[in-house]
């Protein structure tokens, strides 16, 4: 991957019992901030239809520089701290993707 390749990934996590609505609200607010980032091309937050506590986030950034800017955004640390307290996993599980 070079600096000019897009960074594409997805994240998954599961809300603890009774916290799916709170996670959804937190994620919705976070999505609004991320979508304003100049290098963000896509940020889709979803949950499984049959398991509403199971979340899936698809993200795409213009390049590595845009992705690093996203990682360093101050609201990201706040989001992750709040999310960690509401999910089963110790943190969201990230999977990097590459276009064919």
TrEMBL record:
Residues 7-100 form the ABM domain. It comes from Stenotrophomonas nitritireducens. PROSITE patterns: ABM (PS51725). PANTHER family: ABM DOMAIN-CONTAINING PROTEIN, QUINOL MONOOXYGENASE YGIN-RELATED. SUPFAM superfamilies: Dimeric alpha+beta barrel. This is ABM domain-containing protein. InterPro entries: ABM_dom, AI-2_Isomerase_LsrG, Dimeric_a/b-barrel.
């Amino acid at each position: 991957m070079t600096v000019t390749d897009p960074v594409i990934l997805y994240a998954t996590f599961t809300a603890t019992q009774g916290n799916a609505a709170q996670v959804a609200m937190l994620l919705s607010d976070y999505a609004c901030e991320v979508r304003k980032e100049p290098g963000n091309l896509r940020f889709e937050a979803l949950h499984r239809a049959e398991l509403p506590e199971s979340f899936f986030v698809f993200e795409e950034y213009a390049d590595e520089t845009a992705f690093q800017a996203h990682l360093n955004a101050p609201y990201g640390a706040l989001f992750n701290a709040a999310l960690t307290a509401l999910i089963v996993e110790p943190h969201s599980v990230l999977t990097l993707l590459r276009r064919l």
